[in-house]
Design goal:
The protein is built from eleven helices and no strands. The protein is mostly helical. The protein has one domain.
């Protein structure tokens, strides 16, 4: 039970950091810029690399698994761990990189594939009548920060509770959480004002949401750019994780 409390606090802290990154990118790119959220996720990935190399991430993982893993930065940490472990075991950087690339392929790849299939099924089942989900609006800087902590904390705490209750492998749970994000997008739950903050946007739930929504845009014949952007975010997270594992001493 104590790890659930730690998950809430640590997950909430990551949510606040994510929200601060959102503020920063919004100041640079402008309000409503479509690149704000993708760049926020990549920046969180860079944070994950730093946390892995400095040894902060492993110390936090001693307190809670999901509090560290659910934010997208946690995927970089996990990839770095697999890369580093394999590199040390085989004394081969290429073997480490290959093993590191396999983790996001299984987790992000599988989760995104299921999200895309769900998107296509609903699109064709409704004969293309689905609307593009509306983005939630900001509720003001201070409230956004508070909600980032609360939402990020709740997401991490629930994920930790599910892990403790099911004892399921973490990669399997991560895939499930990504797909849950896609279902949230299908019902436009991610468009609610209290979800439009760092607590949700930097979580793996948002990875499924992004795959679902951008594939909808692609199927509508509007533009493939958002979907390609999501794939680039996935690739960036993978590369950052592998680099972290190769640089670790």
């Amino acid at each position: 039970m104590r790890s659930i409390g730690y998950a809430f606090v640590i997950g909430g802290a990551f949510g606040v950091v994510g929200q601060l990154f959102i503020f920063g990118w919004t100041a640079v790119l402008g309000t409503g810029n479509a690149l704000v959220n993708p760049l926020t996720m990549v920046t969180m990935g860079v944070l994950g690399l730093v946390m892995f190399l400095t040894g902060i991430a492993p110390k936090l993982e001693e307190r809670t698994t999901m509090g560290v893993t659910i934010p997208i930065s946690g995927m970089v940490v996990a990839i770095g761990g697999v890369t580093f472990g394999t590199r040390m075991e085989t004394q081969s950087a290429s073997a480490g990189a290959k093993a590191g690339a396999g983790l996001p392929l299984r987790v992000l790849g599988t989760g995104a594939l299921i999200s895309v299939v769900l998107s296509a099924i609903l699109f064709f089942a409704t004969h293309g009548a689905l609307e593009i989900p509306a983005d939630g609006s900001s509720m003001g800087p201070l409230l956004d920060i508070v909600l980032s902590f609360v939402v990020g904390g709740i997401i991490a705490a629930v994920a930790e509770a599910v892990l403790l209750a099911t004892k399921a492998p973490v990669p399997v749970l991560l895939i499930i959480f990504i797909v849950v994000g896609a279902f949230m997008a299908a019902f436009n739950l991610d468009g609610l004002p209290f979800m439009n903050n760092g607590g949700f946007i930097v979580s793996l739930f948002a990875a499924g949401q992004a795959a679902y929504e951008t594939f909808q845009v692609l199927l509508m014949g509007i533009t493939p750019v958002p979907f390609i952007t999501v794939l680039c975010v996935y690739l960036s997270v993978t590369v950052l994780g592998i680099v972290a594992g190769l640089l670790k001493k």
